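Per reviewer request, we include the raw input and output of the structure prediction for the construct analysed in the revised manuscript.
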Amino acid sequence: MIIKQLACLCVFCLCFSNAMAQEPKPVWSSDTAFPLPESVYYNPVMNQLIVSQVNGGGPLAKDNDGCLSRYSLTGKLIEAKWITGMHAPKGSRAKGNLLWVSDIDRMHVSTPKWAKSSRP
């Protein structure tokens, strides 16, 4: 009897979950192609998205072809090669006036335009 009840419960749950399933709706999109993005960081100071672009030879290539791009929150490209000279940037974070970017074998520290001073 318990097995019958469990079977009925499982069938009911499966039917109910399919009836409640909805197609996902896009929250964000861009009309610009990302060459080879690795990560995205929302910078609240700029109110923009910073995209780490690996580009070129892939995620392990030491080719100085990586860069950071800036996008608006609506997906509009602001600056394709905002910060360049990296191999394959893995991610970025801002702290105070500094932007920290991890690369394959090094860390980059930058003072972007939004910073209040040119020195940490």
